[in-house]
Amino acid sequence: MTVRELQVELGERRYPIRIGRGLLDDPAALAALVTGRHALVVTDANVAPHYLARVQAALSGKTTGTVVLPAGEQEKTLARFGDVMAALAALGASRDATVVALGGGVVGDLAGFAAACWMRGVRFVQLPTTLLAMVDSSVGGKTAVDLPQGKNLVGAFHQPAAVLADVATLDTLPPRELRAGLAEVVKYGAIGDAAFFGWLEEHAEALLARDPDALAHAIATSCAHKAGIVARDETEQGERMLLNFGHTFGHAIETQQGYGGLLHGEAIAVGMVLAARLSADLGRAPWSDTARLAALLGRLELPVELPPGLSGDALLARMRLDKKAVSGAVRLILWNGLGRAEVVNGVADADILPVLEP
Ligand SMILES: NC(=O)c1ccc[n+]([C@@H]2O[C@H](COP(=O)([O-])OP(=O)(O)OC[C@H]3O[C@@H](n4cnc5c(N)ncnc54)[C@H](O)[C@@H]3O)[C@@H](O)[C@H]2O)c1
To answer: Which pTM was predicted?
Structure first.
């Protein structure tokens, strides 16, 4: 299979995103990612049995350490961050060390934050193994851990030096995780690319069936959108906020469920539908587009309704604490219909609460 390569351009800096099957089977390319003496590979207990040995073998010429975290969003904590710091210290990692994130968005966010903090910032590379990480979290340099009070509240911007997405790793990804990644793929169509949204409508079944060409096209298109937006707005002063479509709702759901309910991508699917319904209520988006969004997500077997047992008031309180909130007023990404989204400050509680009613 051909390897597709994109560049994330950040003024003077740039880094490659490589997408293709079998990238983890190229030891020389993996070894080239580590430029200094030390490398710490961070992964999780589900990913390690499949892919860790290949990465370790490729880096055998370096002084390496490994951290295998328990899997799951509940582990994206300051305590696990401390474990990674301790492993860097045990390795004697110097300023030319490289942190290698092998896994999904949880591993990538946590390892990236560790790389941002170790000696005030060392090199890090992303080897994403979930669809969500390939299309979204591995690109753009947002790193963080969660607190019980909210998602991603402690973090830093720290760009990777390279992203290598080996599409073959998706062969072992559980179906529910694949679907969660598709939610973020749909997001790019919804907020900025109506033609891509139409392509997704035509290829929903192929994507669910893991058709390699369909997946490669979806990943490359998503990465191109993400790379473009990050290049124009690295630190989220404007346009990059649009990538948070559905996220203020979604993060509130995840936090309220104690990070053990819906998967992140599933919560974003619900959040996008809630944001679209609110936008339609406010007369910003046509109801027909909101119905198309919910229908596509439904065909991708993603949830589109709030899970039972969550109170609207409690969710709203969470939304006020979200990083996107300004001075306690909720700032939301609202929708102007397919392919168009907008940042709206100070959305009134009275407008939001009705869409949070079961
Ligand atoms: N930094 C960003 O810009 C950004 C963007 C979007 C999401 N995120 C974050 O990403 C996280 C979600 O990422 P995720 O959905 O990848 O979750 P995840 O990292 O928890 O991975 C999902 C599950 O799949 C398993 N897994 C991973 N790769 C596998 C493989 N190839 N085969 C078998 N099992 C595999 C993992 O062990 C885990 O159980 C959230 O914390 C979210 O906040 C960050």
So the answer is: 0.95
